[in-house]
Amino acid sequence: MAGYRVEDDYDYLFKVVLIGDSGVGKSNLLSRFTKNEFNLESKSTIGVEFATRTLAVEGKVIKAQIWDTAGQERYRAITSAYYRGAVGALLVYDVTRRATFENVDRWLKELKNHTEPNIVVMLVGNKSDLRHLLAVPTEDGKSYAEQESLCFMETSALEATNVEDAFAEVLTQIYRITSKKQVEAGEDGNGSVPKGEKIEVKNDVSALKKLGCCSN
Amino acid sequence: MMMFGRLRLTTTMVAIRSLAVVFFLLIIGGRWIVFADGSSGGGAAGRNGYSGGLWSSAVAPSNVGLAVAVTVMAGLAVAFTVVYSRRGGIGSPWSLRRRKHALQPEQWNAFFDEQGRLSDGGVKFLKKVRSGGVDPSIRPEVWPFLLGVYDLNSTEEERESIRQQKQKEYENLRRQCREIHKRNENGCDSKQTAQSSNTEDSQVLDSHDNAEVNSSKKSIQVEESENLNSILQDGDCEESGVTSEDAANDSDSTNSEGTETSPLLAKEGAENHDTVSSDSTKSEETETSPLLVRDEAESQDTVNSEETETSPLVAKEEAESQEKDTLTPSSKPKSQAEEEFTTTWQRIIRLDAVRANDEWVLYSPSQASVSDKKARGIATQVGLNDYEHLEPCRIFHAARLVGILEAYAVYDPEIGYCQGMSDLLSPLIAVIEDDALAFWCFVGFMSKARHNFRLDEVGIRRQLSMVSKIIKHKDIRLYRHLENLEAEDCFFVYRMVVVLFRRELTFEQTLCLWEVMWADQAAIRTGIAKATWGRIRLRAPPTEDLLLYAIAASVLQRRKTIIEEYSGMDEIMKECNSMAGRLDVWKLLDDAHDLVVNLHDKI
């Protein structure tokens, strides 16, 4: 599940959106994941930006196209246009700011309004390095995620903790759902862009059994 | 051009007469020499792709007969003038060949008469700026004219009184900000005991960027209250809400009125004239950049009669409409605006302020070398304290951003604060060291730019559709390609539109582009564009939308790549977002000019 690959050599392209309040660290999660960079002074995102990274998931090459959106509510109408075609989402809050966690509900509603019902969503509590300022206990995040059937993880873009895992988990889930659906419904991978090979059924079935949070 | 020779032989006297017309027109067009080359059999047509096409299509029917020949000649005459007025004789003020130097200090000083008035009402001044920008050394003096803080016809004396008046108004706005802090703080006290985590959320200062570094920091709440206390002590305001800074003029302002007296109300000057601008009424109040004093009598009046915060900005501008005064205050109830101020704007302003970068440092040595003590002092005054990871000049810069952006949010509560606005303000405060003056320049800048930040997104959508139209008219093939990709809405230039190329251009490039754009807007605002510039108007009509033409030009510059290589809107967006550092601002303006000349009357 690692490694940076040549851009155009992939089996699947998955679009994933990063959403959440301003200043929770969305852009840094993105740059940590796609460039292994972190910038304390990264500017506010105006509108939408995106970056890609290609990685291997269960023997397939997945190109993840990750869309980073502006957090301020003012920009929501315009950014919502970019939900189109998203098959995954990381809904980010800041573990040191309770309000950002309380807004998660609104973000989730917004997401559901604009995307396919089977979109894979992970709740991400970022800035876990700031333990002394913790305002949202891990348990709170976890129980909310359970209640809403979301994946959950706490991350630190600054320390590169769990960032890779969070994205990889989401992409894996997407892949499994997509390939399962493809098996059931022929070649129509809804929302994803399969390119090249067919899915190997046996791997996916066994994989689904091991599967964690997202599939309840 | 060979064809032209043939054509001439087949014509009669009538045709020759019309040929004379051609000559005449060409002389007018300033291209006599080129024409002579052409008629003697040279290949001059090849110099210009447009004329080549015109020749070949025009010549075919010319052998048919006399009448046709005559018609063709007349047509050619027109074609020639059109072609040359586009590309040659009347060229872009920004083309390489014509590029002028930036406005120099000596030239600038020479524009003024003994009373300190721009001698020709600013015509030469604006012309100069729009063709070459402004030398960095005089930007602080020049920008207030470009941005409408000072009227182009004002005298030195008038400007001085305007300056003083604006200073007071700004101080009043700052006082209102502090009062809101204070009320919020009082309100928070009770909540704090009840639920500490919640209080933290409503705190003003909780940018974590800083906290990430400074792990030993005290709790946010503690710092916050200390800050507010120190502010309050500073300002001896308590009941009346009058701080020491503005006590002299504010006897009429009470706590309860504090926010209502936002200058949005105050702008109802005695002399607001009401040339109504064509925009929708709702947006009116902004177009109206308040700030121009037209003539002595008026400005004197204002200054004398309206010393206090309610002194209007002596607006006399075209856009200045009375509706504004009645509309704005009701557009967002005070309580709602104040709630947004405390729950959202204050926090995001600070968040963005501490992450403003330092690319301006080279351009402002005095601010770059500010002392640590001074920087921290100012940060305390505006209640900024998440800055431990920053060096003094950036603390200073961040604190100034906070002060001015908060004042703006109070001044224009319909917009308040929206991310991206700090991008627009940052260069202004780098250039203009006085907060009040920088604020009013920002107000002038925002009078147009604020539409980018409206909640209903009307402004941004209008602009995106304008870019789309420009592309459609200029390059239908590219447009069809965009349609196929479902990208004809041009959302991929969204960021360029919102922050006016700030993210794509370097600091210096941005300032050049903005100056040219401001000069265009000033020419329109002051009526110079209509009245004086006859020929200039023909060849490079000032436009409110220069930026949009420039944005369209930046896309058109990449048309080949977009058409041939990109098969998704995402790829185009990536291309646009990665233009940073790869743009030549004068080339961009030159191309934009070309689009303006060809399309402004169609769009």
TrEMBL record, chain A:
The keyword Isomerase does not apply. It is a lipid-anchor. PANTHER family: DRAB11-RELATED. It comes from Raphanus sativus (Radish). It is found in: Endomembrane system. This is Ras-related protein RABA1b. It comes from the Eukaryota. Belongs to the small GTPase superfamily. Rab family.
From TrEMBL, chain B:
PANTHER family: GTPASE ACTIVATOR PROTEIN OF RAB-LIKE SMALL GTPASES-LIKE PROTEIN, TBC1 DOMAIN FAMILY MEMBER GTPASE-ACTIVATING PROTEIN. It comes from the Eukaryota. GO terms for molecular function: GTPase activator activity. Residues 268-285, 315-326 have a biased composition (Basic and acidic residues). Residues 133-521 form the Rab-GAP TBC domain. Residues 152-183 form a coiled coil. The keyword Cell membrane does not apply. The chain crosses the membrane at residues 60-84. Keywords: Coiled coil, Membrane, Transmembrane, Transmembrane helix. The lineage of its organism: Eukaryota, Viridiplantae, Streptophyta, Embryophyta, Tracheophyta. InterPro entries: Rab-GAP-TBC_dom (IPR000195), Rab-GAP_TBC_sf (IPR035969). Residues 189-205, 250-262 have a biased composition (Polar residues). This is Rab GTPase-activating protein 22. Residues 184-339 are annotated as: Disordered.
